[in-house]
Structure formats: C-alpha cells, structure tokens
Specification:
This protein has 172 residues and is mostly helical. The chain is built from eight helices and three strands. A hairpin with a 6-residue loop joins strand 2 and strand 3. Helix 1 crosses helix 2, helix 1 crosses helix 4 and helix 3 crosses helix 4.
Length: 172
C-alpha cells in the first residue's frame, strides 16, 4: 500500500534524491529546458516551483533560502537576475512537461521540462498558425481554383508566322 507516500523516492535515499533534484534544478535554471525521465521531471517540478515563487521576492532572505536548495552561486544569481523578472506577473505554473516517448536502451518514459516564459518555439508556432488559412475559409471566398482562373490570362493562339519572317530572323 502507498498510504502517506506523497513524493516519489526515485529509487534513491534522501540525501541522494536531494542532490539529484538540486542538480536538475540548476540545469533547468541555466539551460531553461532539460530532457530527463518523466518521473524525475515530475519530481523536479514540485522541487523547483516553490524556488521560482521564492525568487520573485528579491530579498537577502529569499536568496539565502534558494541558495540552500541549489548550492550553486551562478544558478542562484541567474535565477534572480534573468528568470525572476520574466515570471513576475505569472501566478504559478512556471514549468511545462512535454512527453517525448520511450528511451531506446531501457524503454523509460522520457520527458522535456522547460520554463514556460522562456519558450520561443510556441510563440513562433502561434504566429504561423494565425497566418495560415484553413480550407473552409478558402472555399467561402471563392477557392484557389477560382482565383487562379481569374488571374490566368485566356489562352492565346499562336499566330502563324509570315512566310518571309523566318528567313529574316535567320539572317539577322
């Protein structure tokens, strides 16, 4: 039975799990997107979201609390300098987990966890999706064939060349 087992132990002792999550959090803050197993991504989300919330209040105390979890000066500085201003207006849900399928070697479920406000791919896709028109909208406006027929000139019959015209063209 799993009564009272709130978090995933990830097959590790407490200290090893803490070190693993700390290292994953540092990598996520530095790279804004990391690829890991689904179980580790879900555990990392519960570990890093409170740290991101804490980073929005830029005080000495919050810096020390975050540093005690991350144990990395550069990652802590990057979190408060780069990440915190971008997530300041967001109420929560700073990370996104995207399933990637199974790993070849051991068939472990893989996932990509990323910081939501740092993703440029979705912003470009949304702009591209708005510009693309659907088939139904083309039909209602007359369709592509109708527009192509209007734009294309009518067939022009080739004129019969004059009898002396070919000889003059060859001599020039």
């Amino acid at each position: 039975m799993r009564h009272g087992n709130k978090n995933n132990a990830l097959g590790r002792k407490k200290a090893h799990r803490g070190a693993l999550l700390s290292n994953l959090a540092v990598a996520l803050i530095e790279h804004k997107r990391i690829e890991t197993t689904l179980a580790k991504a879900k555990a990392l989300r519960t570990y890093v979201e409170p740290l991101l919330t804490k980073s929005k209040a830029d005080s000495t105390h919050s810096r020390r609390v975050v540093f005690s979890h991350l144990q990395d000066k550069e990652a802590t500085a990057s979190l408060f300098r780069d990440v915190a201003p971008k997530i300041a207006e967001r109420a929560g849900g700073y990370t996104r987990i995207i399933k990637l399928g199974n790993r070849l070697g051991d068939a472990a479920e893989m996932a990509m966890i990323e910081l939501v406000d740092f993703n440029t791919i979705y912003v470009k896709e949304k702009a591209g999706a708005e510009a693309k028109k659907t088939r139904r909208s083309r039909r209602s406006t007359g369709g592509a064939k109708a527009k192509a027929a209007d734009a294309a000139p009518e067939e022009v019959k080739p004129e019969a060349p004059a009898e002396g015209g070919e000889e003059e063209a060859k001599s020039e």
